Automatic annotation (TrEMBL):
<dbReference type="InterPro" id="IPR006652">
    <property type="entry name" value="Kelch_1"/>
</dbReference>
<feature type="domain" description="FKB95-like N-terminal Kelch">
    <location>
        <begin position="149"/>
        <end position="368"/>
    </location>
</feature>
<dbReference type="InterPro" id="IPR001810">
    <property type="entry name" value="F-box_dom"/>
</dbReference>
<dbReference type="InterPro" id="IPR057499">
    <property type="entry name" value="Kelch_FKB95"/>
</dbReference>
<feature type="region of interest" description="Disordered">
    <location>
        <begin position="44"/>
        <end position="63"/>
    </location>
</feature>
<dbReference type="InterPro" id="IPR036047">
    <property type="entry name" value="F-box-like_dom_sf"/>
</dbReference>
<dbReference type="Pfam" id="PF25210">
    <property type="entry name" value="Kelch_FKB95"/>
</dbReference>
<protein>
    <submittedName>
        <fullName>Uncharacterized protein</fullName>
    </submittedName>
</protein>
<dbReference type="Pfam" id="PF00646">
    <property type="entry name" value="F-box"/>
</dbReference>
<keyword id="KW-0880">Kelch repeat</keyword>
<keyword id="KW-0677">Repeat</keyword>
<dbReference type="InterPro" id="IPR015915">
    <property type="entry name" value="Kelch-typ_b-propeller"/>
</dbReference>
<feature type="domain" description="F-box">
    <location>
        <begin position="71"/>
        <end position="109"/>
    </location>
</feature>
Length: 426
C-alpha cells in the first residue's frame, strides 16, 4: 500500500474558501486529511520512469486530446513558468490538477530546475528528544523558519546509532542503527525530496550501529561500528552504489574502530574514533587504491580535529568552541590548524546552544545547534567573514516545551539533540 507524505509545508487540511464556482472546483480538488508515512515497495527512483501512454512531462501521450497545463500557453512555455515558482509553494501547485501533480512528482521537473540553476537547498535535521523519540524538521533558508515533518519510518522512530547521508543531491538515506527491540539493523530507507516519499533500498550486508559513513563519487561508504552481541568493533567496510542498487564489501579497516568524527577531504575519507582498547585512533581511506592506512602523516590535523567539521572550498573547517561561533581551518601547507573565524557573539556553553552539525549551504558554512538556531558565515570572504543568524535560538515552541519539562521535574527535563543534518536540493 503506497502512502504519499505531506510536504514540509503541505500539511493542508482545507482549501481556500475564496475559491468559488464549478470551474474553480474542477481545478482545485478537495483537500484530504494528512496521512502517516509508510514505506513503498523496494524501488530506487534515480532514473525517470515513464508511465505507459504518458510523456515525460506528465501528460497523456498520443491518442486523446488533453487540457493544456496552463490554458492559452503551449506546455513547454507553461513548464518554463512553473519551474520558476519557489520550492516552498510547490505543495500548492500539486493541488491544482492531476497533470500538475504528476509534473511535480517526476524527475523531469526538478532536473530542469537544477539545469537552469533554480534548484533550492533546504536543510533537514534529524533529532532526538529526551525520551528517545526521533523526529525531523526542515529549514527553508528563504523563509528562515523550521517546519516539522511527518514522522520518520517506524524502524527509526526510536533507533540509535544509525547513519544519515545524501545521494544524488535529493535522496536522504537512513541506514543501520540499533532498534530497542530488534537490536542492530541492516535496514536502509531513503526519502526523495522530489517525490516527497519514503522508499526502501537494499539492506546493508552487515548489521551495525555506531559506525562512520561518508559519500564519495555519489557512492555511500559505511565503516566500523559495532555488530550483533557486542564483541568489540567491526573492521568491515561496505559501499552502496545507487547506479547498481546494491551493496558490496571493500577493503577492511586497518583495525576495528568505533568512529565518532569523520570527514571527506581531498578525495580521501578521514576517520577518528576509539579502537578495541578504547584508545583514540585515526585512519584514512583512499577509494582510488581501495586501501586504509594510519593517518601518521597528518598527526597535527588529527590531534586538533574536533566534531563537528566540514570540508568546504578545499579546506577542512572544525568548531573551536562549544557553540560553534569560532572556527578553525586546517592549512595543509603549514601542517597546522590556523585561520580562526570568530563571530564575536558567543551563545554560551550549555547543551542547548552546543554546535551539533556543520553543512555547506549555497557555498557558505552553516552551523546548526541543538536549540535549532542556525548561523551562516561566508568563510571565503577576503576580509573579515560576516556572520548571519538565519534562525535565532529560543523558538517559542521549544522554549515552552523545555519550561514545562523543567516544571514537571529535573530528571524528566527533555533535552533535544540534533543527530544529523543534511542538505537536499530540489
Amino acid at each position: 500500500m503506497v502512502m504519499i507524505l505531506v510536504d514540509s509545508s503541505a500539511c493542508l487540511c482545507r482549501v481556500e474558501r475564496s475559491v468559488a464556482g464549478a470551474a474553480a472546483a474542477r481545478l482545485m480538488p478537495r483537500a484530504k486529511a494528512c496521512v502517516q508515512p509508510s514505506l513503498r515497495a523496494s524501488i530506487h527512483p534515480l532514473k525517470p520512469k515513464r508511465s505507459p501512454g504518458r510523456d515525460h512531462r506528465g501528460g497523456a501521450g498520443g491518442g486523446g486530446r488533453q487540457c493544456p497545463l496552463i490554458p492559452g500557453l503551449p506546455d513547454d512555455l507553461a513548464v518554463a513558468c512553473l519551474v520558476r515558482v519557489p520550492r516552498g509553494d510547490h505543495w500548492k501547485l500539486r493541488l491544482v490538477c492531476k497533470r500538475w501533480f504528476r509534473l511535480l512528482a517526476g524527475n523531469y521537473f526538478y532536473g530542469l530546475r537544477r539545469r537552469l540553476g533554480l534548484a533550492e537547498q533546504w536543510v533537514y535535521a534529524v533529532k532526538c528528544d529526551g525520551d528517545g523519540r526521533v523526529s525531523w524538521d526542515v529549514l527553508d533558508p528563504a523563509r528562515r523558519a523550521w517546519r516539522a515533518l511527518p514522522p520518520v519510518p517506524g524502524e527509526y522512530a526510536a533507533a540509535v546509532g544509525f547513519g544519515c547521508a545524501v545521494l544524488g543531491g535529493c535522496h536522504l538515506y537512513l541506514f543501520g542503527g540499533s532498534d530497542p527491540r530488534r537490536g542492530p539493523m541492516r535496514r536502509v530507507v531513503f526519502y526523495s525530496a522530489r517525490s516527497n516519499r519514503w522508499h526502501r533500498a537494499p539492506d546493508m550486508l552487515r548489521r551495525r550501529h555506531g559506525f562512520g559513513c561518508c559519500v564519495m563519487g555519489n557512492r555511500l561508504y559505511v565503516a566500523g561500528g559495532e555488530g550483533c552481541g557486542g564483541g568489540g568493533g567491526l573492521r568491515s567496510v561496505e559501499v552502496f552504489d545507487p547506479a547498481k542498487n546494491r551493496w558490496s564489501f571493500v577493503s577492511d579497516m586497518a583495525a576495528s574502530l568505533m568512529p565518532f568524527v569523520s570527514a571527506v577531504h581531498g578525495e580521501r575519507w578521514y576517520v577518528k574514533g576509539l579502537g578495541a582498547q578504547r584508545q583514540v585512533m585515526s585512519q584514512v581511506y583512499s577509494p582510488e587504491t581501495d586501501a586504509w592506512s594510519a593517518a601518521h602523516e597528518l598527526d597535527a590535523m588529527v590531534t586538533g580535529w574536533r566534531s563537528p567539521s566540514v570540508s568546504l572550498g578545499g579546506r577542512l573547517y572544525a568548531a573551536d568552541c562549544k557553540d560553534g561561533c569560532r572556527l578553525r581551518a586546517y592549512d595543509e601547507a603549514a601542517g597546522a590548524w590556523s585561520g580562526r573565524v570568530d563571530s564575536g557573539q558567543h551563545a554560551g556553553s550549555s547543551h542547548a546552544v552546543e554546535a551539533a552539525a556543520m553543512v555547506a549551504l549555497h557555498g557558505k558554512l552553516c552551523v546548526i545547534r541543538n536549540d535549532m538556531s542556525v548561523s551562516v558565515v561566508d568563510v571565503a570572504a577576503a576580509a573579515s567573514p560576516r556572520w548571519e543568524t538565519v534562525v535565532g535560538k529560543g523558538q517559542i515552541k521549544a522554549f515552552v516545551t523545555n519550561l514545562l519539562s523543567a516544571i514537571a521535574g529535573g530528571r524528566r527535563r527533555a533535552k533535544n539533540r540534533v543527530l544529523h543534518c543534511q542538505v537536499l536540493e530540489a
